[in-house]
Amino acid sequence: xxxxxxxxxxxxxxxxxxxxxxxxxxxxxxxxxxxxxxxxxxxxxxxxxxxxxxxxxxxxxxxxxxxxxxxxxxxxxxxxxxxxxxxxxxxxxxxxxxxxxxxxxxxxxxxxxxxxxxxxxxxxxxxxxxxxxxxxxxxxxxxxxxxxxxxxxxxxxxxxxxxxxxxxxxxxxxxxxxxxxxxxxxxxxxxxxxxxxxxxxxxxxxxxxxxxxxxxxxxxxxxxxxxxxxxxxxxxxxxxxxxxxxxxxxxxxxxxxxxxxxxxxxxxxxxxxxxxxxxxxxxxxxxxxxxxxxxxxxxxxxxxxxxxxxxxxxxxxxxxxxxxxxxxxxxxxxxxxxxxxxxxxxxxxxxxxxxxxxxxxxxxxxxxxxxxxxxxxxxxxxxxxxxxxxxxxxxxxxxxxxxxxxxxxxxxxxxxxxxxxxxxxxxxxxxxxxxxxxxxxxxxxxxxxxxxxxxxxxxxxxxxxxxxxxxxxxxxxxxxxxxxxxxxxxxx
Length: 492
Hints:
With 492 residues, the chain is α+β, with helices and mostly antiparallel strands. It contains 8 helices and 25 strands.
């Protein structure tokens, strides 16, 4: 999302509201005094009744205005809330469409005067319209955070605009627990204005409104029909990853089993991976979200700082998963949350649609489905030479069809499970489980679906089991992979 540098012009309405409030209070007091004088000094009952009724009407009208002002409704805003006008202009162009008010040029935005960052903002209709800001917070610099919520005057405009009726209030936040200095957090903004707000900024100093950076608030409307049935969120790629062959095979296999959209958060990758990403972006199935976390922090490439020192867990993996969760909440019926070297495969059913229909019939209230993780060691290959097609050897990366040996089921298979979720039923997600959800959680039986994870081994070769599930797709998979490799320029 594009951040906006704004110049703040203090709005005279704040002063006007104070003046109006004083006038209302004075009017009520005068009305009460007049009524008291009439009732104590006038003996005519008809006069007393008339004056009393007029006094009650005037007082009621003024009290109604005061109530409206206190609750932030009608023409008035409480002076306790910082109220101002923001003159702003978007910077840069997005896809050739001119300056875009509220759309960011970076997915990571520093919060001024702090060690914290914001990522994206969404209206959460399950929390009475609260605004949820996906953020990255520093544990060492925790302090009070404040939301500045604003509404744009012209929702359809893409030119220089003014935000009006902005209010500031204290935020609540919930941080992901781990041992790193930085962690993903949901910052919640809950005020009456949040129901109409179009932009939000997070600040540590509610009285210093200069140079704020605003995010556009997405998910303004609840939708019940979705563009995609299955969207795959791949948390992030980094370290000049160049596993192009496995990526192409995984993309084509996901299309076969029913995935219609793939989202990847990209910090860095190698030249062959870049070709593959460009190809699938052009095809329309892939959205690549830039994720320059290494420009702001020193990211770890592990889940524990003693394994790989750094500021934040796995290049901010939890932040990207939660961004994808909300980004596609009203675009996709289901989300698959797994890594680049993993693929969720239905075993009993032909595709993901049949798998989820079966699971939802049995568990109609569930919103989270955990798929057990099975390790297929990348050090052991099928030896008959059937699937390392000669031309594939020219492309960097792992050949999935060579890896049909898996390690036996164990306790870690469940601990390191990955997820299929109904995003409307999830509040926050972690890597292997959801942190908050609005429905039930189902551990999917391994005979219905498994996570195939081609990686370095965890156990000895003597315990391996043959699992040829991927070979069932070979008749469609191989020609599709060949076509993609040639059209992408990975093979000439």
